[in-house]
UniProtKB/TrEMBL annotation:
Cellular component GO terms, alphabetical: fibrinogen complex
One GO BP annotation of this record: fibrinolysis
SMART domains (alphabetical): FBG (SM00186), Fib_alpha (SM01212)
Transmembrane segments: none
Main location: secreted
InterPro entries, per the entry: FIB_ANG-like, Fibrinogen-like_C, Fibrinogen_a/b/g_C_1, Fibrinogen_a/b/g_C_dom, Fibrinogen_a/b/g_coil_dom, Fibrinogen_CS
Encoding gene (name): fgg
Coiled-coil ranges per UniProt: 54-81, 109-143
Subunit structure: Heterohexamer; disulfide linked. Contains 2 sets of 3 non-identical chains (alpha, beta and gamma). The 2 heterotrimers are in head to head conformation with the N-termini in a small central domain.
Protein name: Fibrinogen gamma chain
GO MF term set: extracellular matrix structural constituent; metal ion binding; protein-macromolecule adaptor activity; signaling receptor binding
Recorded superkingdom: Eukaryota
């Protein structure tokens, strides 16, 4: 039987995929150990799926074979019985002058013959099922081989990673890189390099992007570990959504150079309007302090200073309890907020929750923007992608970008902080 051979082949293929993806010595190959899951080779991912699928088909096949054997045994028993009964009938007819008993036996014989016919039909069906499954396994095996060939090093659908490296994207731009895309960075205090999307503009500014929302394709309702390590997908053409990860954001902002880091927030609403807000001396403290958000001051922007909190008119303390500077990070499984309940759980996100927020860029994605308490689900609180100094809390933004740049480079190109045009939010 083929299963053991197939399994062996499958394991070999699986092994070769794994080794093709995890190599870290070549910048042009995929790395799966950076917390971004399967962002890289979709084809290899399909192959893995197929290889996982084959053993279950083999199990089904084995089970059907057992069934078939059982039925074959039953059939044999029935046939033996018929023969025995035919013999008995003959014997009875010879021996018994009254003959009634033998007519009963004839009926039994007929009944058993009908059973045999029914079982033969069943056997036929099972045989068809087996051959169609065998056909399917052959197809899957061929597909696996094709995929294995496609994924043999270097994997053809892997993402393109630029060769320049640096401590952050500005460092990379300073080294002459002019293309936005994926780069490896290694901040001064980082134990290892990691992948980021660098947005490099015509003025030689290199923004390190730490968060991207654009179409709701990634669920941002994640736990502490996921927010720590990052989730979603990095893409070389800025087409995917992600959270870079609190640990990486901490390392990127724990600068030893003394140059303040600016957090630039760019927002797009459902009418295509774009606004931004800048915060300087932005830092995330280490995990031991729960990745607390700290910044020096609001540098400017036309989206307004939502991090300072907002007076919703519900209570005089609204602004105080919806400000974000100095807040620790919270997720549904790690409540560090200033609220009796659990803001992150109620709003389905990870964020620097207070009691709870006036800015909420990791919120739930609402197509079209406007939503209601009813749309917000179980808790009914405003849980969209919110920046209340621009749109109110029942309006969820369409796109967001959070990115870092040294303060000294922010105004490069002769522009001031209040520029109306900015690059990087792709056409949508
Ligand atoms: Ca709480």
């Amino acid at each position: 039987m083929a299963p053991s051979l197939l399994t062996t082949t499958g394991l070999l293929l699986l092994f070769s995929f794994a080794s093709a993806q995890t190599r870290g010595d070549n910048h042009a190959s995929c790395t799966l150990n950076d917390g971004f899951g399967m962002y890289c080779p979709t084809t290899c991912g399909v192959a893995d799926y197929m290889l996982r699928y084959i053993p279950s088909v083999e199990n089904d096949l084995d089970r059907m074979e057992n069934d078939l054997e059982t039925i074959a045994n039953l059939t044999q028993e029935s046939e033996d019985k018929v023969v025995y009964m035919k013999d008995s009938t003959t014997t009875a007819a010879q021996k018994n002058p009254y003959y009634k008993k033998s007519s009963d036996m004839l009926e039994d014989v007929l009944r058993f013959e009908r059973t045999i016919v029914a079982q033969e039909d069943q056997i036929m069906e099972l045989q068809n099922l087996i051959s169609s499954n065998e056909q399917r396994m052959t197809e899957l095996k061929q597909l696996s081989i094709q995929l294995a060939q496609q994924c043999s090093e270097p994997c053809k659908d892997e993402v393109e990673i630029q060769p320049t490296t640096g401590t952050d994207c500005q460092d990379i731009a300073n080294k002459g890189a002019t293309t936005s895309g994926l780069y490896f960075v290694k901040p001064a205090t980082s134990p290892e390099q990691f992948l980021v999307y660098c947005e490099i503009d015509e003025f030689g500014r290199g923004f390190t992007v730490i968060q991207r929302r654009r179409d709701g394709s990634v669920d941002f309702n994640k736990d502490w570990i996921q927010y720590k390590n990052g989730f979603g997908y990095l893409s070389p053409d800025d087409t995917t959504e992600f959270w870079l990860g609190n640990e990486k954001i901490h390392l990127l902002t724990a600068s030893l150079s003394g140059i303040p880091t600016v957090l630039r927030i760019e927002l797009v609403d459902w009418d295509g309007n774009r606004r931004y807000a800048d915060y300087t001396m932005f830092r995330l403290t280490p995990e031991a302090d729960n990745y607390r958000l700290t910044y020096g001051y609001y540098l400017g922007g036309d989206a307004g200073d939502a991090f300072a909190g907002f007076d919703f008119g519900d209570d005089p303390s609204d602004r105080f309890f919806t400000s974000h500077n100095g807040m620790q990070f919270s997720t549904h499984d790690k409540d560090n907020d200033k609220y009796d309940g659990n803001c992150a759980q109620q709003d389905g996100s990870g964020w620097w929750m207070n009691r709870c927020h006036a800015a909420h860029l990791n919120g739930k994605y609402y197509q079209g923007g406007r939503y209601t308490e009813k749309d917000a689900g179980e808790y009914g609180f405003d849980n969209g992608i919110i920046w209340v100094t621009w749109h109110n809390r029942w309006y969820s933004l369409k796109e967001t970008t959070m990115k870092l740049i040294p303060l000294s480079r922010l105004t490069a190109g002769g522009q001031q902080g209040g520029m109306k045009e900015f690059a990087g939010l792709g056409a949508s």
